[in-house]
Design brief:
Layout (H helix, E strand, L loop, with lengths): L1 H14 L30 E7 L14 H14 L10 E11 L7 E13 L5 E13 L7 H30 L10
Parallel strand pairs: 1-2
Antiparallel strand pairs: 2-3, 3-4
Length: 186
């Protein structure tokens, strides 16, 4: 009996418990394509609205991305890129995690995130930007020996890349058509 308990504890220690995605690990770095200009109408004007579609992690099963973790990753991303509303909530960002496609098993864990984003002007409720982004990310065997850890890293990487693409598309859309965001014509 004692050997069975020890074997069970050893198996859990070797496999590990699943942990949810870390919001800070889902924040993309600032780049030329994701930062807004000083005169942008989006600068410090975007509030995080409704975030949905995430799932809580069951420690005995697989890592997931929860709604609160995704919302916090979006807040941190907007803050890092000078978009998060300080006191001028001119826009509201809603996002829905439509799919988090995860492998069941493997050495390299490729996770694909599909997210729908909607940016609404608060003053009149007009949708000024809307997109759906699909982004894969592979956590390689070299990133961790533990499959549950690689899956978490894959989740974080897929969401980080998804948010990066969203920010790049949003900044690009405003640069191409500032009038749609309430700015002067280009």
């Amino acid at each position: 009996m004692r050997q069975a308990v020890l074997a069970g504890l050893l198996a859990v220690a070797l496999v590990g418990c699943a942990a949810g995605a870390n919001p800070g690990a889902m924040v993309p770095p600032v780049s030329g394509e994701t930062i807004v200009s000083t005169g942008s109408r989006l600068r410090q004007a975007v509030a995080v609205g409704t975030i949905s579609g995430g799932r809580e992690t069951n420690p005995l099963w697989t890592s997931q991305v929860s709604d609160p973790a995704f919302a916090e990753a979006l807040r941190q991303s907007l803050a890092t890129h000078a978009l998060l509303s300080v006191n001028n909530q001119a826009f509201r960002l809603d996002a829905r995690l439509l799919e988090l496609n995860q492998p069941f098993i493997g050495l390299d864990m490729e996770v694909t995130a599909r997210v729908a984003y909607r940016l609404t002007r608060v003053s009149d409720g007009a949708v000024v930007f809307e997109t759906e982004i699909r982004s894969p990310f592979t956590a390689t065997f070299g990133s961790s020996l533990y499959a549950v850890e690689r899956l978490r890293l894959g989740n974080e990487g897929a969401i980080r890349e998804n948010i990066r693409q969203f920010l790049a598309q949003l900044v690009g859309a405003e640069q191409r058509n500032p009038l749609a965001f309430g700015g002067p014509a280009a």
